[in-house]
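--- STAGE predict ---
source: upstream dedup step, 1 unique chain passed
mode: sequence only
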Amino acid sequence: MRRFTRLYLDLDQTNRTAEKIAAIERYFREAPPEDAAWGLYFLTGQKVKRLVTAARLRDWAVEASGLPRWMIGECYEAVGDSAETLALLCAEGGCAPASAARASDEHVPRGTSDGEGLSLGALVEHRLLPMKRMDPGEQQRVVTAMWASLDEPGRLVWNKLITGEFRVGAGKRLAVRALAEVAGVSAAEMEHRLTGRWRPTAEDYLRITAPPARGISRVGADGREEVISDGAARPSQGLDPGRPYPFFLAHQLLAEPESLGPVEDWQVEWKWDGIRAQVIRRDGRTLVWTRGEELVTGRYHEIAADAGLLPPGTVLDGEILAWERGRPMPFMALQRRIGRIDDQPRLFPEAPVVFQAYDALEVDGRDVRGEPLSARRAMLEAIAADAAKRGAAALRVSETLRCAGWEDAGAARAGARGRGVEGLMLKRLSSPYGVGRTRGDWWKWKVDPFTIDAVLIAAQPGHGKRAGLFTDYTFGLWDRGALTPVAKAYSGLTDAEIAEVDAWVRAHTVSRHGPVRGVAPELVFELGFEGVQESGRHKSGLAVRFPRMLRRRADKAAAEADTLDTLRSMLRGAGG
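--- STAGE serialize ---
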């Protein structure tokens, strides 16, 4: 636990990428496999499901420390992070008597009653995970025992782990780069090893970090990676053969497309608004993985059934779309099936889905990602044509556009919204299929966002580094003479602009509801968003997608802001 807490502090106290990677690499080199496995689990963004609510933790802190509830609430508003607030208050108020550390010894291995003396693996497996089966009283004894036996940084990490809110100042990509150095493999290879399902065990960690085998490697017909040396083949790494490949991601095109060179060097296709996924057919199994590394085969029955018609050793990249009458349905239709663990037949007529494939990553058991896009596209079309002959209706190939010049591409982009798509994808025909977001070969050229002028009507403090500042805003539009809430946004302003709005909110507060302050309806902001749809969960009856602040409209009075009818007209124009 001390080693992992030290890593947390090292990552939190620097903004330098090289220093973060060095700290992570040092942790993996020093930690035993059973600890490193859990460290990797948390560093790559995975977490244990929330075991205790923040509200219950505050109740236990009040009871253990004797501090008044209002003080904890005030401190939270200043700090902006519940886990950090309680870690600090325990230092001041002593949230548990020293004897509490002995109250839950039955939940840990003998001789490890001191929380700081526990390894990360022991802490997770003998204190954290057993809390799933405990009643609130037992949970309270374990939590307060840990508060008593850990120092302030240790309490902070512990609180974040039990609330499922563990975030650290390093993304998955930095962890991948550090672990690649430890294992002596490329970052791309490590990304592949970590894609899909693996368990935070010493055994899986050792397989993930195994040094590269000597010889020539390939992917066999059954989907397993093999190493060929002196004419003999043997399995490599022992990892799950059903794992997907790391996804290749595009950057937003901000320059003029002419800066990319001749349009003939590029594949131009629609940018679909669905769920990015890979369809895998290996070893007699059919799997559908999302970009978020979620296995969703059972949720999309039509796609899984048709993918079973693909030849063995096939992996396709594409998009899951709700599809009707030859065009995509609004994303809201797809949302009806996103949260389902398994398909329900009654949903099929309402939201039929297709897999719009746009790349081939593995063909006949061979990894073809290193081949140029033009060659992979030809393979994809051949595979799709053969599947169509077998009756696969839910597997489609993404349409490419023939453009004589960038003017033609611009005209197609201008009409994208009417087709129910987000714009265009521009992919260099000579490009390999990379890993992650690599600049230069794939670009997304999205349509300009929808915009409205809305009035700021409420604000609340942010979290983490934004704690103590009013940074999360609620905006309204006029409807029958009153302002109706339509969107919440917290991104788009500079630090200087946030400070200015924060001061204004404090000076113009007209009501308070917990941390939320209602403000005088005077400030107008231009909001941008990707789409609008009907919603019974919102007072306005409408919901906007990905709202953000584009600028403050100091030139407009609140009375000049847009109306709810403006938003409704956008819904109609988008085919909603």
